[in-house]
Amino acid sequence: MTRYLCHDEPLLFDFDAQALACRADAILMSRSAFHPGGGGQLHDRGIISWGGGAQRVVGIDQQSDGLAWHYLDGSACETGTAVRGSVDRAFRSLMSQLHTDLHILNALVFQRFDGALVTGAQIAADGTARHDFDLPEVDNAKLKALEADVNDVIAQGLEVRTYYVTVEQVMAEPGLIRSKSVAPPPTPDGKIRIVEIVGLDRQACGGTHVANTRESRPIRLVKVDNKGRHNRRVYIALEPAH
Known about the structure:
Shape: globular
Mean pLDDT: 95
Strand content: 35-45%
Distance between the termini: 37 Å
Low-confidence stretches: none
Strand order of the largest sheet: 1-2-5-4-3-6
Largest sheet: 6 strands, antiparallel, barrel
Radius of gyration: 19 Å
Number of strands: 13
Order of helices and strands: HEEEEEEHEEHHEHEEEE
């Protein structure tokens, strides 16, 4: 996993860069504060502008060298052009709230249902998200009842912080990797990013998150579906903003 600028400077939404290479509708920038998506999270939205032009970002393709192609909804600038990126703050906030809320849900399921692992996740642009868990024997009503507990954690205002640990530390601490089938890849220097909700949970993750659980709106736990013999799919939605 590349160490993204949005991880190191989560409040950086407007930044200057240079177009290192350009295609008809894409720019490879020297630096970027856009989150490229992954792990069920959508990529950041926003604008890339330059003298005489500006285009919306409609896709991001992360490269192995840490840079990323940013696909645009129109023609790109020329190679070598000075550009300015502007991340859509409202959309980043939406993704960060929902991703943090999934971590809260994940933590409660892991603690209360014998370390059940995640089998899938998806965050949507409409303010909804889902988590899939390996829970073959659980009464769905018990999962639905977690809504009040998730909202209680949100209301507590717990600090959310991130840091990096070695792969060896991750392997030595059960529960830092929550997915049944995949794990976040290490950074080039062999580290894994940890997201901690202080007093509740620690787990490896490459997504964006709020800095305090109170920054999220309350959620509704919409429904629980059976997806096969083992899989339970839990849907949540942010309550409307007032």
